[in-house]
């Protein structure tokens, strides 16, 4: 039988701090396919994440069909805003949530992975993180600092991760990131330069696929996911309406799940996708194909998808 088999592979999933987002769902799918999974967690969220895990608060979501639990091989502190520890300002390095965490930069994580697991410790890297401090502001009202932070944390971090992690990957290694359709269509409410960051991330996916493909033989893809009420998305303030709208207006009206995204990511990083790189893969129940809402006001009588 043809199956997704990641046995003997190690994945790093950057951007897991609870069990409600895509990072967690991807980590679970990769583990289910046999991979060992390490995660990178933002230092301000690390303490609470470890406490919730220790107290068993995530046991239900960690459970596989056979009753066993998802285990993380190692949890690392990672702030993807910083390429090296030296580039972090003193007030960050001395902050109480950071100072006990060692080198939380992208380069620091690369060094720790090598120290923990030896040369070429990785096969799979998942970038499932984003942050736009002014996401609630329209682009017209976004400050330069807010815009640059959104692009730096949400897009440049992927460039930096490919630069620092690709040399640590075995041949046939694979990167995947998470993007959103606001990169290419206007989504009012997704502001602060986050739409710009996702456009950069998708463009960089193509260029990184070429450059890192030629240099290291790795693949680089991104998944354009439909709206999902994760912690990060809930901060935008309109996520429930976006989920409902997408479900009402997509070819497939069952709401998209994080598991849909996890399964697609497991395929993309697996040998079954060996011919796929530089791609933006939509996992959105087909919403991206639509050019018109299906409310009765807009859809003609007899339209098979017409909503009441
Ligand atoms: N939820 C959606 O509707 C949706 C849709 C399409 C794409 N996405 C993308 O999916 C990815 C995962 O987001 P999610 O919605 O699952 O939410 P999430 O809250 O589970 O994940 C976001 C993670 O980013 C981490 N993070 C923020 N700043 C960081 C930094 N500087 N360094 C390291 N980590 C940092 C947060 O701690 C959090 O764990 C993001 O790239 C997001 O833009 C989300």
TrEMBL record:
UniProt EC number: 1.3.1.9
Enzymatic reactions: a 2,3-saturated acyl-[ACP] + NAD(+) = a (2E)-enoyl-[ACP] + NADH + H(+)
Keywords annotated in UniProt: Fatty acid biosynthesis, Fatty acid metabolism, Lipid biosynthesis, Lipid metabolism, NAD, Oxidoreductase
Pfam families referenced in this protein's UniProt entry, alphabetically: adh_short_C2 (PF13561)
Xref: InterPro entries: Enoyl-ACP_Rdtase_NADH, NAD(P)-bd_dom_sf, SDR_fam
Gene3D superfamilies: Enoyl acyl carrier protein reductase, NAD(P)-binding Rossmann-like Domain
Metabolic or biological pathway, per its Swiss-Prot or TrEMBL entry: Lipid metabolism; fatty acid biosynthesis
Enzyme class: oxidoreductase
Keyword NAD: yes
Entry-linked NCBIfam families: PRK06300.1
Family membership: Belongs to the short-chain dehydrogenases/reductases (SDR) family. FabI subfamily.
Record-given protein name: Enoyl-[acyl-carrier-protein] reductase [NADH]
The organism of origin for this protein: Pendulispora brunnea
Lineage, top ranks: Bacteria, Pseudomonadati, Myxococcota, Myxococcia, Myxococcales
């Amino acid at each position: 039988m043809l199956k997704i088999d990641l046995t003997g592979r190690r994945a790093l999933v950057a951007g897991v701090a609870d069990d409600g987002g895509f990072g967690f769902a991807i980590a679970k799918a990769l583990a289910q396919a046999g991979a060992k999974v390490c995660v990178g967690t933002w230092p301000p969220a690390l303490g609470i994440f470890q406490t919730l895990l220790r107290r068993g608060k995530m046991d239900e979501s960690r459970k596989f069909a056979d009753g066993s639990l998802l285990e993380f091989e190692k949890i690392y502190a990672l702030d993807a805003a910083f390429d090296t520890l030296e580039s972090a300002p003193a007030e960050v390095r001395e902050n109480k949530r950071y100072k006990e965490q060692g080198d939380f930069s992208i380069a620091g994580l690369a060094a720790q992975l090598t120290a923990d697991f030896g040369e070429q410790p990785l096969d799979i890297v998942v970038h499932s993180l984003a942050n736009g401090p002014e996401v609630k502001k329209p682009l017209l009202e976004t400050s330069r600092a807010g815009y640059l932070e959104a692009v730096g944390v949400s897009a440049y971090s992927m460039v930096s991760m490919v630069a620092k992690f690709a040399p640590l990957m075995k041949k046939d290694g694979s990167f995947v990131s998470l993007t959103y359709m606001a990169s290419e269509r206007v989504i009012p409410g997704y502001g602060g330069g986050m739409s710009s960051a996702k456009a950069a991330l998708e463009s960089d996916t193509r260029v990184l696929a070429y450059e890192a493909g030629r240099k290291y033989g790795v693949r680089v893809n991104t998944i354009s996911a439909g709206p999902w009420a994760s912690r990060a998305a809930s901060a935008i303030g309109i996520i429930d309406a976006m989920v409902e709208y997408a479900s009402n207006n997509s070819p497939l009206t069952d709401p998209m799940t994080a598991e849909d995204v996890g399964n697609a990511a497991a395929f993309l990083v697996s040998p079954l996708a060996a011919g796929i790189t530089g791609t933006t893969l939509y996992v959105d129940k087909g919403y991206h194909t639509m050019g018109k809402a299906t409310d009765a006001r807009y859809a003609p009588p007899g339209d098979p998808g017409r909503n009441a």
